Amino acid sequence: MGKWTAIVLAGERPEPDMFALANGVPLKALIAVDGEPMISRVVRAVLAAPSVGRVVVLAQDPARLIAAGTEWMATDGRVTMLPARSGISASVAAVAGSAEAPYPLVVTTADHALLRPEMVEGFLAAAGGADVAAAVVERRVVERGHPGTKRTWLSFRGGKYSGANLFALATPASARALEIWSHVERDRKRTWKLLSFFGPLILIGATTRTLSLKQAARIVSRRFGLRLRVVPLPWAEAAIDVDKQADLDLVRRIVDQGKVYVGAATVGAMVRFTALVTAAMTT
After folding, report:
1. Helix (H, G, I), strand (E, B) or coil at 213
2. Which of 4, 80, 97, 213 is the most exposed place for a label (fewest CB within 10 A)?
3. Which stretches does DSSP call E strand in 175-275?
4. CATH topology of domain 4-282
């Protein structure tokens, strides 16, 4: 059994989800992609990653997630379903390090419908040695694979990046990251507010594009006393989650066409990343 615990976030707002209802289900996590609810696809993907031994699903009312296509999660001994709190950071902090969710933790979301085991393995292999790690995808990789995709981009010297909804909380020290995140999660889609929280060096460096992604990670690490790593992934699909109908249409089209785009800044980078994934998947 793998040593990592995967947390899948499936929280919902208290008001009715009109996007979900328009797709014939009460919750976004239950929207079907290729005939399977998104949350089922995500949980299956993380369980198929050799490094992951168990999954914790967090939702306001976990019982509502058990429906056609997700019944197996209620009986699979590797899956635990727990009630979420009112925010992402509070929900994860409430279970992190508990008997149900021991460290190390990898966190993703129920709407990451294109997640695949090799993405999880590659990310965890590259995140080794960090307290906290976050996956990103460079804009050119995403747009070469799927032109016209609308994402939130963070600009740095050398490229623009979108989050990939994969986070590693590898050690108890990562509790500090959850505390920090509790102050910024409301602004996570508002680029400048998010950057300004991390200090003027980050904000100015990103605004002028004089700061690289690695330099920004080092500054944040020193400021908060954490070993932070940002991991660029070579899969365009890793940056695509489902927030709106256009996202869902794109995801369904990608799945129907079997279209997967893998890019990298250099051939050498792709070779090194492939080696990491291969080693992680075969050990």
Report:
1. helix
2. 97
3. 228-232
4. Spore Coat Polysaccharide Biosynthesis Protein SpsA; Chain A (3.90.550)
Distance CA 94, CA 101 (A): 10
Per-residue model confidence as pLDDT tens digits over 93-124:
999 999 999 999 999 999 999 999 999 999 99
Contacts of 124 (CB under 8 A, 6+ apart): 4, 49, 51, 106, 168, 280
Greatest alpha-carbon span in the chain: 52
Three-state DSSP at 283 gives: coil
For residues 120 and 167, what is the distance between their CA atoms, to the nearest angstrom? 10
Question: Which amino acid is it at 38?
Answer: M
Cβ neighbour number for residue 196 with a 10 Å cutoff: 17
Closest of 147, 173, 182, 163 to residue 233, by C-alpha: 163
Give which of 76, 78, 69 is closest to 33, Cα–Cα.
69
Q: Please enumerate in sequence order all residues whose Cβ is within 8 A of that of 258, keeping only pairs 6 or more positions apart, or say none.
A: none
| Cα torsion angle, 49, 53, 59, 62, sign | positive
Beta bridge partners of 52: 4
Measured between its terminal Cα atoms, the distance across the chain in Å is 11
pTM of the predicted structure, to 2 decimals: 0.86
- Show the CA angle centred on residue 95, arms to residues 91 and 99, nearest 5°: 165
Nearest partner of 130 among 232, 228, 275, 57, judged by Cα:
228
**Residue located via tokens 């051939």:** 267
Write down the number of H helices and E strands in the chain. Answer: 12, 10
AA letter at 22: A
Classify 81 as helix, strand or coil: strand
> Model confidence over 200-216: pLDDT tens digits?
555 545 565 667 888 88
Tokens standing for 27?
A: 């919750």
